[in-house]
Amino acid sequence: MTATLIDGKLFAAELRAAQKSALSALAARGVQPGLAAILAGDDPASRVYLRNKARACEETGVRSEVHEFPASVSASALLERLAQLNADPRVHGILVQLPLPPQIDASQVLAAVSPMKDVDGFHAMNLGALLQGRPGFVPGTPAGVMRLLEHAGVPLAGQHAVIVGRSTIVGKPLALLLLQKDATVTICHSQTRDLAAVTQQADILIVAAGRAKLVTAQMVKRGACVIDVGVNRMADGKLEGDVDFAAVRETAGWITPVPGGVGPMTIAMLIINTIRAAELSLA
Ligand code: NAP
Question: Are 276 and 247 spatial neighbours (Cβ–Cβ below 8 Å)?
Fold first, then answer.
């Protein structure tokens, strides 16, 4: 069996193109959605992510701005800038690029983003809404994974979904979204005993561990849907996922590539959230 490739790059571009009418309706009311990003320090990966986000914003018709700070920045400087951005009517979405420098308490900074502009969905109010199944901004990566599964026609109700990784930005919110769709969900992490024994039971296997080629073909049930969230920069500069793509595609029913799978969907969801925030600002 060779798995069906789920092309996140193509689908993300279609989703962004489909925002045209929402953007025109906003333009008719004199509004262009605006996304402001906070970047503290000089992490090269963060810079690449922000560049990709800014490019996608520009292609879609969303204004973007980056607020850069040195690695030595104080929490109060970041909080002061966030207060300005929260009050700025031209800014509808705010994202704080993680990781922040070690002297900064990330949870304090994320809590200072207005929940109405929290397009990354990391504010406790939006995460709480997700837990309760109420409307709110959903983090881009889990939301993007759900859209990919839906787009590929992968059945969810009653299926066993196994997630490897329990972070607040990927694993935990994804578990909640899959539960909302009536999947039976198992979350694995670094302390899970016999990871392979669990992953072999998955109808849907989502891997977000940040460990290159953690998942081998032997760990995947024949015909399963495998979604690879991992992004690992190898010594030769190439990007690798958490899944041994070449081997697993011979076993799986569906598979996402890295790059070109979940990454572009994360960005598309961020942009869609920003457009929604602009609409909500007029409501
Ligand atoms: P994270 O906060 O470091 O969390 C990693 C999770 O994986 C933790 O729960 C950890 O367990 C678990 N884990 C690590 N090694 C494991 C192992 N050997 N077996 C089982 N579980 C293991 O990372 P994250 O922010 O969620 O990101 C995960 C990966 O996704 C990274 O490669 C990141 O770059 C990528 N990512 C991609 C996108 C995208 O848009 N494509 C977005 C976000 C993240 P413990 O909790 O026990 O430590």
Answer: no
CA 198/CA 181 separation, integer angstroms? 21
pTM of the predicted model as reported, rounded to 2 decimal places? 0.98
Q: Map tokens 């925002």 to a residue.
A: 19
Are 150 and 257 part of one and the same domain?
Answer: yes
Side-chain-side CA neighbours of 147 within 13 Å: the count stands at 27
pLDDT tens readout for residues 98-119: 999 999 999 999 999 999 999 9
Q: What is the CATH number of the domain that holds 232?
A: 3.40.50.720
Q: Would 128 be classed as within a structural domain? A: no
User: Which of 189, 191, 270 is the pocket-test mutation for ligand 1 (most atoms within 8 Å of CB)?
Assistant: 189
Q: Kindly state whether residues 74 and 170 are assigned to the same domain.
A: no
2 assigned to some structural domain: no
Q: Are residues 66 and 157 located together in one domain of the fold? A: no
Q: Which atom of ligand 1 is nearest to the CA of 164?
A: 21
Q: Tell me: do 181 and 245 sit in the same domain.
A: yes
98: domain range? 32-114
Evaluate whether 149 touches 174 at the Cβ level (below 8 Å).
no
CB < 8 Å & 24+ apart, contacts of 82-88: 82/38, 82/109, 82/112, 82/113, 83/112, 85/36, 85/117, 86/112, 86/113, 86/114, 86/117, 88/36
Cis? peptide before 139, omega within 30° of 0 = no
pLDDT of 1 higher than 80: no
